[in-house]
Specification:
By secondary structure, the protein is mostly helical. It folds into two domains: 9-71, Orthogonal Bundle (Arc Repressor Mutant, subunit A); 76-200, Four Helix Bundle (Hemerythrin (Met), subunit A), CATH 1.20.120.530. Helix content is 64%, strand content 5%. Pfam families: FCD, GntR. One of its GO terms (molecular function) is DNA-binding transcription factor activity. Residues 7-74 form the HTH gntR-type domain.
Amino acid sequence: MSAGSEETLAVRISRVLADRIVAGEIGPGERLRQDRIAEEFGASHVPVREAFRRLEAQGLAISEPRRGVRVAAFDLPEVKEVAEMRAALEELALRHAAPHLTPAILHAAEEATKAGDASRDVRSWEAANRRFHKLILTPCAMPRLLAAIDDLHAASARFLFAAWQSNWETRTDHDHRAILAALRKGDVDAACATLARHVRWIGRRPAPPASDKRDAFAIHG
């Protein structure tokens, strides 16, 4: 198998495992068994180890001496750290993206917001929410910055699923609309300020009382 195909397989494995972790199908502290995962994907241990490294970089897994690789736990300080990092990096990306945002991109972002408002479950809402952020940030054309933001979005989504998987509430995202209104007026400072405040809301209030999940936090971002 070539180095290129090993890399592609590692990306696919890490994406599948990340989706399972985010959705709560693999819980905090659960061991990621290299042999089983290699067998599932028909892979050697090389792409599986690379997939584990990618999950560690995203903050979704940790490697412990003599204990192997496990799904990372999370707590309120980590939620807040992710929020602060996302706010800073997304504001930077938006400042660089703003000059390149076309009416078509802003329209697509508005449609993503409408899709989120109409969502009947947390999974479809999170997909629409991530699409909105990606649309307005991608034109910054800074791949390393965007990759870091993608990793933080994965961490945010994990907290979101823990908080709202069983207690979803439909919502209207007024912040997304305010960001779009500011961008259409050319007020980049207002758009960036709203985006940063919007993302920092992660972890500001606890999950719904009916939730049976521990250490779960509401997410608005």
